[in-house]
Amino acid sequence: MKKLTILIATIIVNSSLLAQSGYDYDEEIQVLYGVVFNGDTIPSLNVPEIAITGYKFDTKQDEYWYNYYLKRVKKVYPYYQIAKEVVLELEEEKANSKKKKFKKYKKDRKEELMNEFEKELRGLKVSEGKVLVKMINRETGTNFYDLIKEYNSGLKAWVYNIAANRYDYNLKEVYDPESEDNRMLELAIKQVLNSQP
C-alpha cells in the first residue's frame, strides 16, 4: 500500500509540474489498461516523451527549433563520433609518418570509410548533413572546406563547396557557438553530448 501511495503521489506531482509548465497533455496521455492489486486499480499510461533540457524557452519558435536540431543531432551523432576519431587518427599518423606513407594511409583509410559509410551518408537529409558539418567544425575548430582541402585536395574542396552552395550552405563558414543562428543547435548539441556515457 505504501508503494501505491508513492506511485500515486509521483503521478500527481508530475501532472502538476506538467500543468504548471503549460504543457498540453490531455489528448496525448492514454490509459492502456489497469491492473488490480489488492483491490486497488493501477493504470498503465502511455505518456508522450518529454525532453528535460533545464532550459525554459522564450517562445514556441525557440522550442520548435530546439526539437528540430535535437532530432538531427541524435541522428548524426554516430557519424560525428566516427569523424572525430578519424580526424584524430589522421593527425596522429601525419605527425608520426613520412609524407609518402601518410598519403598512402590517407588513401587507404578514405577507401575503407567510403565502402563502409558512403551509402548511409548519401541517405542523410540536407538538414542532417548541415548539422553534421557544423558539429565537426565545432569539434575541430576548422571549417569543413579546409578539412576537405587538407585531406583530399583544393579542387575537391572547391567542388564540394559549390555543391553545398546549391543547398544554401557555405563550407567555408566557421561555426560560432555564440551566434544567434546557432543558439538552439548549440543547446541540442550540448544536450546530446551530456547524455552520452
What does this structure look like?
The protein has 197 residues and is mainly alpha-helical. The chain has 2 domains: 2-46, no CATH class; 60-195, no CATH class. Helices cover 65% and strands 8% of the residues. Helix 2 packs antiparallel against helix 3 (99-122). Residues 15-25 have low confidence and may be disordered.
Q: Could you give the count of β-strands?
A: 2
Largest sheet: 2 strands, antiparallel
Kindly give the count of domains: 2
Average pLDDT metric: 78
Shape: elongated
Order of helices and strands: HEEHHHHHH
Quickly list its features.
197 residues, mainly alpha, 2 domains, two-stranded antiparallel ribbon, 2 strands
Task: Please provide a brief summary of the model.
The chain is mainly α and 197 residues long. Helices cover 65% and strands 8% of the residues. It has helices at 2-20, 60-96, 99-122, 126-140, 144-151, 154-166, 183-195; strands spanning 30-37, 40-46.
